[in-house]
Amino acid sequence: MADIIRRLGRDATIVTGNQRLARVLRQRYNQSMIEAGCEAWLAADILPWNAWLQRLWQETIVANKVASNLVLLDAHQERQVWQQILQTIVPSLPWLTDGLTVTRMMVAAQNLRTWKISMDVATFAYNEDSQFFWKVFTAFERSCKENSWLTAAELPDLLLPVLQAGGTALPGELILLGFDELTPQQIAFLQGLAQAGCVPEWLQFSSEPAFIGKLACVDSRVELQQAAQWILRRLEENPDAHIGLVVPELSTQRALVCRMLDEMLCPAALQPGNHELPRPYNLSLGLPLIQYPLINAAFEWLTLPVPVAEITHVSRLLRSSFLAGREDERSARALLDARLRETGEWNVSLQSVAHHASQIERPYHCPVLVQRLKQLLELAEARPEMGMPGEWRRQFSQWLTVVGWPGDRLLTSMEFQVMQAWQVLLQQFVALDWVAQPMTLASALSRLREMAASTVFQPESLPVPIQVLGLLETSGLQFDHLWIMGLHDGVLPAPPQPNPFIPLPLQRRMELPRSTAGRELQVAKTVLQRLAGSAPEVVISYPQRQQDMSLIPSPLIAAFPLLSKEALSGGTHLIWQQLIHQNSRLQQLTEDPAPPLVEHFIPGGSRAFKLQAACPFLAFAELRLGARELGRTQLGLNARVRGILLHRLMEKIWISLKSHDCLIATPADKLDELIVSKVTETIREIAPRYRQSFGARLQALELTRLSFLAHAWLEYEKQRPPFEIIEQEKTTELTVGGRQVHVRIDRIDGLPQGGKLLIDYKTGLSKVDGWFGERPDEPQLPLYSLLFGQELAGIAFAQIRTGEMAFKGVTSDETGVPGIIFYKKLPLTRDYPDWLTVIVIWQQTLEKLATDFIAGKAEVNPKQYPQTCAYCSLRPLCRIDEKMVHRSGDQGE
């Protein structure tokens, strides 16, 4: 390295095989200048191969040594041309223009250039794929020629004769570093430079490792833990050490790698609000630009101006920090999000969002949001139908400015760099004007999104001691300590992946990249040999399992000695969770009961009794603290709305029929007309509340469903003895535990023998058992029974369910209704002396539940764990799972 720094001081040019090596060399050169006491110095001339070629091209343009009308396409422009040609050739197959197809065609075309393969139609007559590629490729070449376009793969062949003729000054000293192999095109180019007097020097760092061995690990997670512990120990021994961690499958394991390194090296970064803390490691693999929250929010806003949007889309924007007024309206926007979810609709219009947000008297009033939304809608309505990328770029910038993106707060260092990368991306998008045709808004957004997804961005950071890299990104780098993980036989050597668009015999004959297993084996040997010489200490590891699949080590590491984890780590390093648990201390908390209820009514009506019986904490949290799950949205109507439809339909039908006698006397055709009429009327009442999710087609389906259910239920009701409808949807109050309770009774039937039968409609499965016990599962009907005393003849569920129509109830006497049981025949009540005792027991149970609720009894005590908690949304609040784990641990001890 010292020799290279001296050469850079003599104006040498270093061309590297990858961007990372160029960055590392520049950092080390700058550091050497600082250590030498220099206050200013010329920047080192270090460039990756492609950047160097582009600089040579720019110099020849400035020197007027090539035609001035030639345009060098960047990667995005080249992809745009490929996509347009594909759309022209196969307009009926739009899936062929997807990212993978275009990428493989571009790689195939690049390989033809870089491996200097002669191209003719006979060669590509191999199969349908190669014939199709040849058709598209020749169209691409023709389009480039007609428009004077060049691709990056053509640069070496075009530059070489110009450079040999003295078209621009060549480096006095040219050094190549970090190339595992050179393509035939690169070899020819460098040989041509040598003939012109610029002889390149190919350097490779290598050293004999003083320590090398392999370690078997259970799986990738354990493997990463071992590597992180080893890195921590080496860093403790020498904080200035250069440490490398090579992860062959870094793209898929990136999140796990970051998590494990944070747990061991920077645990504070895992705490809320600390995600921006500097890490002692750097990943060579960045994220696609679109995955950064700042850019993702921009696309969320750009795709918003549509007639309706999914509630999840709107919800993300309401909670986004990259929007004007967020700090002032944070709470109101969260409440607005909750309000929109309560509608149950999957789609919501922006006008509806603005309407709710403009309600001044509501806690979800958001004036800034309303103003921004209205301005955005006005701009969106004035947009052109078609436009070039440059025009759409201006539109997009206006839209983002109107909504206040990227927000009011100061951007972090990383966000600022991401913002700069976004501006560069927009410039590249505008550059598509050279090659693109007018496009719609949807096409422009899709193209910009593709560009953001294909642009991998890694924010700049200060020099750090630990580098995390992929296998091929380590070329030319040297470390003090190196750990290479994940070397099972499925990774090294890599399986061949020949390009489907180049004839396979041609790929094998020319030994194109990824074409044969033999070539991949040779590449793997070269890479492993280089890695083994990249540090004095090298550890190689491999996982033995991946989920349910057994793995074996790569055969290329068989000769390395086997290591033990104890010898490597020198002991076990506890991660931060283990340290916290190890140093935990019990804290005695004084009892702090919930305050008693001061209101004169019990909130929630009959639901308060159901929740108190299920779990006192659940009743307190939901009905007194207001801790409720956000409304659930789904495609179509949710179960609650469909239940409302059925209740309303039954009410309307029985308003017309009034009694069993009338039901029996109504002719079948008239009954069918009545059902259809009432179903239609019910749907028309409900539909305006759900304009987005309850359209005409769904209304027609619901008409069929409800008509079928109503007809089947009325046929079932015909089997009953005579009855008459006394009242429906009765709203009233009763006093329990000294507090008023608001209730609504679905239906009250009068029986011929006297007395009243209370009926509650159910669309799900129901059981009579839920009415009994100290903590009844379904206390609703027993609660209603307290209103009637000796008038009560019984209570029953009316289970209206396809294929399972049934009454399920209990009565004071035999009624002849299938499913409704005389209390003396019911196992739970047959020992009671009379019917009044049943009612008294219900009253005592409900009084106890009411008294507990009023007194503030709110302990976490589910009736039956875990069944009671299976669908509860408040488990993170009550922490019942942690409590049960602790209890089971105590019992185990």
Q: Would you kindly provide a brief summary of this structure?
A:
InterPro entries: DNA_repair_protein_predicted, P-loop_NTPase, PDDEXK-like_dom_sf, PDDEXK_AddAB-type. By secondary structure, the chain is an alpha/beta fold.
The tally of domains stands at: 5
Task: Report Rg.
Answer: 37 Å
Q: What percent of residues are in strands? A: 5-15%
**Morphology:** elongated
Q: What is the helix tally?
A: 32
Mean pLDDT: 90
Distance between the termini: 60 Å
State the major sheet: 6 strands, parallel
* Number of strand elements: 24
Low-confidence stretches: 889-893
Please list the strands of the largest sheet in the order they lie side by side.
7-16-15-8-14-9
- The chain-level structural class is alpha/beta
Helicity, as a percent range: 40-55%
Pfam families: PDDEXK_1
Protein name: PD-(D/E)XK endonuclease-like domain-containing protein
